[in-house]
Amino acid sequence: MQYGLLGGKLGHSLSPKIHELFFKYTGLTGTYGLLETELEALPERVKGMRSTYAGSNVTIPHKIAVMPLLDSIAPEAQAIGAVNTIKFTQEGAFGFNTDYFGFGRMLEYNDIQITGKVAVVLGSGGAARAVMKYLADKEAAEIYLVTREPKTVDQHFLEIAPKCKVIDYATLENLQGDVIINCTPVGMYPKVEAAPVSAKICANFAAAVDLIYNPAETLFLKQAKDVGRKYVNGLFMLVAQAVAAQEIWQGKTYDSELIVRIMTELERSL
Ligand code: NAP
């Protein structure tokens, strides 16, 4: 079976390695390649894949543009407004968003509760959309979206999580809660000396989650760790969203041990 990653510039993607490890550990046969595609060439590419691919992931900048090219879209992907996984069958091409499932599985695995809790999301980009949808579906008591520009924030967030409050970083200074989630690229390699918020703000939350996985311990997570808070990086989510795509393609479920096994081997190569 043939699988791949559809996107713009894909040189540094870890996806081929993750799926290679998936095939190795499950004993399934499959190939996973990089499909760099210009926006203008996307319709033809998807058309061609319908008869030659069993599935693909989709990344920047095609997560939204690919949606009208598909036959149907799963409810979570529709609500988020982005597709990162396609399943091709004889019946058609179907879109999903496995960042949503990967994020949820990461929280569950690390025993971070959402229902009835106060959650803060930093950054209003693409990754935050899937995170906000999960928090809303799990019925967090309060959801705060922290942005540098509350006035111009994408109004789609209020459809994803109608009860969310959009605030700026100054307002965040006075907030306490259960979990703070970094959905900004601040602190990512090579600018590892930066954090999206101060140590004082990190201390106001019981747990800190960073979607960044390189470095494994961002300054944001170190700030939480130093005051004894729970902290989790984004590597589990990265592998879990890939395994969730495989679950869709293979029509099977895989336990978290497989995710951890892939993650452990991947960590060595980072
Ligand atoms: P993005 O669109 O580039 O940025 C997300 C948001 O971060 C922006 O919309 C912006 O929100 C805020 N931001 C950007 N630069 C900033 C700065 N210098 N200071 C403060 N805020 C800033 O990124 P994304 O695609 O959503 O991804 C966000 C992060 O999550 C990346 O590091 C990505 O690698 C990671 N990620 C990880 C996984 C995983 O599986 N682990 C999956 C997806 C993404 P405002 O304008 O509202 O402030």
Summarize the structure in words.
There is one protein chain. With 270 residues, the chain is of the alpha/beta class. The chain has eleven helices and twelve strands. The strands form two sheets. It has a six-stranded mixed β-sheet with strand order 2-1-3-5-6-4, with helices on both faces. Strands 9-8-7-10-11-12 form a six-stranded parallel β-sheet, sandwiched between helices. The two termini are 27 Å apart. The mean pLDDT is 97. Residues 99, 102, 123-128, 147-149, 153, 183-186, 188, 196, 211-213, 234, 237-238, 241 line the site of NADP nicotinamide-adenine-dinucleotide phosphate (NAP).
Task: Give a topology summary.
Elements: E1 2-7, H1 15-26, E2 31-36, H2 42-52, E3 55-58, E4 72-73, H3 75-80, E5 85-89, E6 92-96, H4 98-109, E7 118-122, H5 126-137, E8 142-146, H6 156-160, E9 165-167, H7 169-172, E10 177-182, H8 199-203, E11 205-210, H9 219-226, E12 230-232, H10 235-250, H11 256-269
Parallel strand pairs: 1-2, 1-3, 4-6, 7-8, 7-10, 8-9, 10-11, 11-12
Antiparallel strand pairs: 3-5, 5-6
Helix pairs in contact: 1-10, 1-11, 4-5, 4-10, 10-11
This protein binds NADP nicotinamide-adenine-dinucleotide phosphate.
List keywords for this structure.
270 residues; alpha/beta; Rossmann fold; 2 domains; 6-stranded mixed sheet; 6-stranded parallel sheet; 12 strands; binds NADP nicotinamide-adenine-dinucleotide phosphate
